[in-house]
Structure formats: C-alpha cells, structure tokens
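Table S2 (continued). Query chain:
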Amino acid sequence: MEHLFSYGTLQSKEIQMQVFNKLLTGKNDQLLGYKLKDLQIEEEFGMADYFVAIPSENHEDFIKGKVFELTSFDLAKADQFESNAYKRIQIKLKSGIIAWIYIES
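Corresponding output:
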C-alpha cells in the first residue's frame, strides 16, 4: 500500500468517488516545515483558485491534512487528477509515516 497526504481537494468524499470510485480510509496528520500558497489554475470554464504546499523558511510552520492508504493504481489515478501545476514527492509526516504529497511544480 501507498500513503498519500492530502491537504485539500482529495479529502472531499465527492472528489474521492469521482477520482477513485470509492471512499479512502484516512487519518489526521501534519506536514511540518511547509505552508500553503494561493494558486490559480486554468480549468475548462476559466480560472479557479486552489492552494499548494511549499517549503517554509519557518520550521515551525505546518499543514494539517489527512494521510490516506491507497494502491499504486489509485495513486496513478490521483496523478491524472492533479494538474501540471503540482508535482508528487515523498515526505515524512509528523506521525513518522512516509507519504506522497503534491507540491508546487
């Protein structure tokens, strides 16, 4: 199993059903040393506002989110869902879990 840390859209049950055709099992966790930045992404009907994780100079900054267990196949589906404004990297969460996360590309 893979782990994916989500701090935004993929926490939505509606989005999970749309992307994975199932609900994911997750638990609360934190990403230390990162902060959120506003991001505009062009979509089919215009620009939409989102946010993206970026490393912070302040090591006390953190992002709250959920860490989900998913298959490699599901991770590939998440890659297709995320825009090219994001890239996927592995990080260590506060809990000690090694997880994938989408950050600014």
